[in-house]
């Protein structure tokens, strides 16, 4: 909220300066006494641009996030903001031990929610199976917690972090098991 106040004052200042510049260009009293007509046109154009942009910023600065899913009920309508659904999906994704980072985008189409999750994964065995389980988990948890229908969950692996120490430990463990099993086989 503090940043909104700072931006409000900044845009208000630009609008006041734009208005003053237009007024001073048309009715020169203080600063712009001896400037040419092309320069006056440039000053008026730039000032008018800042005023229009300032008004547009005021209209959207305090606007609420209207991306919402409306659920009809017997006693009225219930609204679930898409950012809440995105945060829930992101939390579910990050709760998996093989995911180090996730970002979620969503949209509503025909009352159903579509999610697109981008993940950064650690190296795991059978990543495709893990991602399919994550898709099911996200759909089930969101439906359970919000009652919304999830049309699709698209998961994109943007990056895989390769941890060679972890892979080498797994290979050494397998080699040790094979060594001991080979040893047992020889004694029989």
Main sheet strand line-up: 3-4-5
**Helix fraction bin:** 55-70%
Q: β content, as a range?
A: 15-25%
CATH class of the largest domain: Alpha Beta
Name of the CATH architecture of the largest domain? 2-Layer Sandwich
Annotated CATH homologous superfamily of the largest domain: Cation efflux protein, cytoplasmic domain
> Helix count?
5
Mean pLDDT: 79
Question: What's the overall geometry?
Answer: elongated
Q: What is the name of the CATH topology of the largest domain?
A: Alpha-Beta Plaits
N-end to C-end Cα span: 76 Å
Residue ranges: pLDDT <50 for 5 or more in a row? 177-188
Structure description:
It contains 5 helices and 5 strands, in the order ααββαββαβα. With 188 residues, the chain is of the alpha+beta class. It folds into 2 domains: 2-61; 69-163, Alpha-Beta Plaits. α1 packs antiparallel against α2 and α3 (82-94) packs across α4. The longest helix has 25 residues, at 2-26. The relative contact order is 0.09.
Keywords:
single chain, alpha+beta, two-stranded antiparallel sheet, 5 strands, 3-stranded mixed beta sheet, 188 residues, 5 helices, 24% strand, elongated, Alpha-Beta Plaits, disordered C terminus
Concise synopsis of the structure shown:
The chain has helices spanning 2-26, 37-61, 82-94, 127-146, 164-187; strands at 68-73, 76-81, 99-109, 112-122, 150-161.
């Amino acid at each position: 909220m503090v940043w909104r106040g700072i931006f409000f004052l900044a845009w208000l200042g630009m609008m006041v300066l734009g208005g003053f510049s237009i007024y001073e260009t048309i009715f020169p009293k203080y600063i712009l006494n001896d400037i040419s007509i092309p320069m006056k046109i440039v000053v008026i154009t730039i000032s008018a641009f800042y005023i229009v942009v300032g008004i547009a910023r005021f209209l959207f600065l305090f606007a609420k996030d209207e991306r919402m899913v409306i659920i009809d009920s017997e006693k009225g309508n219930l609204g679930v903001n898409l950012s809440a659904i995105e945060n829930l999906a992101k939390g579910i994704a990050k709760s998996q031990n093989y995911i180090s980072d996730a970002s979620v985008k969503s949209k509503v189409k025909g009352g159903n929610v579509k999610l697109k999750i981008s993940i950064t994964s650690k190296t795991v065995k059978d990543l495709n199976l893990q991602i399919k389980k994550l898709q099911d988990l996200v759909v089930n948890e969101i439906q359970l917690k919000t009652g919304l229908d999830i049309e699709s969950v698209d998961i994109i692996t943007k990056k895989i972090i390769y941890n060679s120490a972890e892979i080498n430990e797994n290979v050494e463990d397998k080699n040790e098991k094979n060594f001991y099993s080979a040893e047992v086989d020889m004694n029989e």
